[in-house]
Input
Amino acid sequence: MSTRITTLDNGFRIVTEAMPGLSSAAIGVWIDAGARHEAAEENGIAHFLEHMAFKGTARRSALRIAEEIEDVGGHINAYTSRETTAYFARVLGADVPLALDVIADIVRNQLLEPREIETERGVILQEIGQALDTPDDVIFDWLQETAYPGQALGRPILGPPDCVRRLSRDDLARFIDAQYCPGQMILAAAGAVDHDRIVALAAEQFADMPARGAPAAPAARFCAGERRVERDLEQAHLALAFEAPDCRSSARHATQVMATALGGSMSSRLFQKLREERGLCYTIFAQAGTFADTGMTTIYAGTAGADVAPLAETIIDEIRRAADDLGEAEIARARAQLRAGLLMGLESPAARAERLARQLSIWGRVPDVAETVARIDAVSRDDARAAAGAMGADGRAALALYGPVSGAPGLAALTGRLAA
Output
């Protein structure tokens, strides 16, 4: 497999990876414009634009956008995250030019018709309502807001209903003009692809965009805080977060290995102690996530209201214990899980294309997969223990609780227990 990168004169980047033996390809445009690039009064606009991309262009109706891809057996989709908006398709190799043409059209030529805006506004409000009715979804938005209060990185991707109701066509057009810049865009493709052909096609679609940059996203600062929402639910939901290394930090792999050993699988400490030994929960996990300038190690569990206190306290006890006695076998297993997850995932051209775009955005290059595997394998027992010991070492953590949580200990009690 070979990765090739070309940059057009206006800063638009094209990265491809040919995967011999495949008949299909994944292709898409990743834009460094997500929820953290929004002003407070326009929160939700990046996600709104993702929806509007499929509502019609000057050349294609909403139905035709779907039909052209589905007529050749492919599929097209999009997503918005806190730092990125992506538009992508999966097609057979012969249909890559069609997919690129459709994606370029919906990225660059959205009609933003007032009638369609109102229709999609209603759809998004329904989506927000559904999320609010899903405790193990909404609690992570609350945790993010608590960890980064009053900051762009802490705002929900979908936006609050009041903001979504106020967004106008002019607002949407201004956001496109400010954020959809060639220097913020990456076209990534993997599978049955020809780099030179894709570069030629991309130049036809994107080379006329004026070279300019977008405003930088506001810096983020992890804070301590607690959000507790009492509600008559079957389960008490608990989410706890600690600051972690950012996506460029050399310490990020140690944190990922530690989080995997702590709560990333059925053999992990939290799963074994809280579910298998004590029966305090059905779902529990730990994960480490990164952003451009910060990161979060997150632990989530759902339990009965009567068990939320012992569950929370046992989580803290397991974090403290991990800092002292994570063993070689646990670390080796966590490294193997991360290594296998990476390599198995990259057998998909869609995962390959997404990795290409993300790595190029972060590093300005695409590190070889072997380089990433080597960094995972280099994490030692002491590195992982140190990562566990760093959790809450500065006294800062974020806590979100939802459901029958009156008996849950507060953040001060938990951080105090961690420091004891």
Summary: The mean pLDDT is 97. The first helix runs from residue 45 to 52.
